[in-house]
């Protein structure tokens, strides 16, 4: 049966409405998708920016921490340097050698053999000790054993004999362990009149200190060598092998004998 005209109009109108609805719905859905996509991109950008800010803040905190640590280390170094300068200033003025002695005496040891005792001092952290060769000899001149070293902390340690130079009256020993060493000064910089201290065990009195000045340099010793330092710091038997120390806490010589020629 053929559709009447008004039926065709109704069907056409309904189809148009359906098509328009679908188009509008598609547009709305597309607009919603675009909006959600824009919101997602915006949120993702905010997250990226926030992460970047967090990273920047973390880097700044690390840099600030490093700067503070470096500043603290620098201050510690400066304070240590100032304290050391104060110690040197006191020693130079002859006011107080206590700061120098406090550090140096810990590197001095008493040397004991089967026939007597003397002094030695540590020249390497590994426990190498310098002393006079005659400290280690018996009446016949032979090496007297056993050899022991007594540290400032009163630890008694067996010492190994490494070697000696008889002409210079120097011997080298070694004890086990780790120690603070005494630094050696440049002999060319020794000045007549500068203040010095001698550390040793005179007459069995362990770790005694005497103060004096350098009276002369390049004195001739019993071996004919003109390399000895003359000082008015008091020396007695037991001081042999001990260090003669300047105001910087450095060793400028080894206490060996009195001016009269008697061995110290």
Describe what you observe in this structure.
The protein is of the alpha+beta class. The chain has 2 domains: 40 residues; 154 residues, Thrombin, subunit H, CATH 2.40.10.120. Helices cover 36% and strands 25% of the residues. The chain is built from 2 helices and 12 strands; from the N terminus they run H-H-E-E-E-E-E-E-E-E-E-E-E-E. A hairpin with a 7-residue loop joins strand 8 and strand 9.
Report the principal-axis shape. rod-shaped
> What's the CATH class label of the largest domain?
Mainly Beta
Largest sheet: 7 strands, antiparallel
How many helices does DSSP assign?
2
This entry's quaternary arrangement is single chain
Q: Which percent range fits the helix content? A: 25-40%
Low-confidence stretches: none
Number of domains in the coordinates? 2
Mean pLDDT: 81
The chain-level structural class is alpha+beta
Quote the beta fraction.
Answer: 25-35%
Query: How are the strands of the biggest sheet laid out side by side?
Result: 5-4-1-2-3-7-6
**Helix and strand pattern:** HHEEEEEEEEEEEE
CATH-defined architecture of the largest domain: Beta Barrel
CA radius of gyration: 44 Å
What name does the CATH topology of the largest domain carry? Answer: Thrombin, subunit H
- What is the CA–CA distance across the termini? 147 Å
Number of strands: 12
């Amino acid at each position: 049966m053929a559709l009447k005209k008004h039926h065709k109009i109704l069907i056409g109108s309904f189809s148009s409405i359906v098509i328009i609805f679908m188009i509008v719905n598609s547009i709305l859905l597309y607009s919603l998708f675009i909006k959600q996509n824009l919101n997602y991109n915006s949120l993702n950008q905010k997250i990226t920016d926030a992460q970047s800010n967090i990273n920047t803040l973390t880097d700044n905190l690390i840099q600030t921490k490093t700067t503070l640590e470096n500043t603290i280390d620098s201050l510690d170094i400066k304070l240590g340097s100032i304290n050391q300068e104060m110690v040197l200033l006191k020693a130079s003025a002859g006011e107080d050698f206590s700061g120098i002695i406090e550090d140096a005496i810990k590197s001095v040891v008493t040397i004991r053999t089967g026939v007597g005792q003397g002094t030695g001092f540590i020249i390497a952290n590994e426990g190498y000790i310098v002393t006079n060769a005659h400290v280690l000899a018996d009446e016949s001149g032979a090496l007297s054993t056993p050899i022991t070293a007594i540290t400032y902390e009163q630890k008694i340690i067996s010492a190994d004999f490494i070697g000696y130079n008889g002409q210079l009256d120097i011997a080298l020993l070694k004890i086990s362990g780790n120690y603070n060493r005494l630094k050696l000064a440049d002999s060319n910089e020794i000045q007549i009149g500068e203040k010095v201290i001698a550390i040793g065990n005179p007459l069995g009195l362990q770790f005694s200190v005497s103060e004096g000045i350098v009276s002369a340099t390049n004195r001739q010793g019993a071996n004919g060598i003109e390399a000895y330092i003359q000082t008015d710091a008091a020396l007695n038997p037991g001081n042999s092998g001990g260090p003669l120390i300047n105001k910087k806490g450095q060793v400028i010589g080894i206490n060996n004998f009195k001016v009269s020629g008697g061995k110290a």
